[in-house]
Amino acid sequence: MQQLTAEYGDKFQVLSPQGASLPYCFESASGECGTASGSHVWVRVPDVKPQSKLVLKFEAAVNSAAQAAGQVFDLYDDFNAGSVDVARWTLITDECNPYIEAGWVRSDGHKGGNSECGVMSKAFQVKTGMRVTTRLKLASGGGDDCDPVVGMVRSDFNGFSNSDTPNYMDAWVSDDETPAQYLIPHQTSGYEAFGSSNIRGQTFQVEVALHNSQARACQTIDGKCSGWRGWSAANDRVFLGAGWHQGITWYYDWVRVTRYVYPEPTATWVL
User: Fold this and answer.
1) Which of the pair, 88 or 259, is modelled with greater confidence?
2) pLDDT of residue 222
């Protein structure tokens, strides 16, 4: 990017090997993607095979060809609208009523008990070879429990008991009291603890990736990742929120879904 911006500034277009203009957006310091110039670029590339090589050409343009992130990613929401887009998201309100505040989708006061609360993609379905990434934060206090959840769930998602959870979701889950972070895949016996960071009062990113019917979770708070565990294709809706919600507020800044999880293709940039 340094060479690219030195050559063209932010006024360029990205061309496929066949010469077609490809949509791209600039990533900001917070991870959101848009048309404002930034140090990282996301490009929506043509379909490529695993372990293949792709040659992309950057060409000077009169104006920047950057587009809104929705044109680049399979699913993207920066939650900058005044309210949750109910055409794209189902509100899961068993434990709270999610709403948008200052560009974050967040929880309100809890209703009591332990159950799910958050937003679930209404039509979009995650498939193997995709990665769900989001930026979240947890309040430092205000209650006695809040276990955030990022991952894929069943369309009839309605269970958070120990026996039912594997049947309804494949996800990164953080127990904020222990503290510990887990990958909870479809297999009941496949739970994997891979982190022990205290997430209260922290802002960080989480991703859950799918590859060949397996799931893996990673987090930037300590740079740790789980191993790959079996994933159920029935759990295909994106979910952001929490389970076992007891009053500590959670916030999600943005979410994006990208392709080509593993092994990622390599690209050669031609200026």
Assistant:
1) 88
2) 94
Tokens of 7: 């050559």
What is the pTM (predicted TM-score) of this model?
0.90
- Residue 9 φ/ψ region, left for φ over 0, alpha for ψ in the -120 to 50 degree band, beta for the rest: left
Distance CA 206, CA 188 (A): 22
The per-residue DSSP string of 30-85 comes to TS-EESS--SEEEE-PPP--TT-EEEEEEEE-SS-----GGGTSSEEE---SSS--
Q: Do 218 and 209 meet the contact criterion of CB atoms below 8 Å apart?
A: yes
Q: Are 149 and 242 in contact (CB under 8 A)?
A: yes
CA angle, residues 177, 222, 78, in degrees to nearest 5: 85
Domains in the chain, CATH or no CATH each: 2-72 (no CATH), 76-259 (2.60.120.200)
Region of residue 103 (left: phi > 0; alpha: psi -120 to 50; beta: else): left
Residues forming beta bridges with residue 230, ordered by sequence position: 214
- CA proximity to 126, closest of 151, 156, 105, 149: 151
Q: Are strands 53-60 and 266-270 parallel, antiparallel or unpaired?
A: parallel
Q: Which residue has the higher pLDDT, 16 or 110?
A: 16
Q: Residue 122 has what DSSP assignment?
A: S
pLDDT in tens, 70-123: 999 999 999 999 999 999 999 988 778 899 999 999 988 666 556 778 999 999
Q: How far apart are CA 160 and CA 145, in angstroms?
A: 15
How close are the terminal C-alpha atoms of the chain, in Å?
Answer: 11
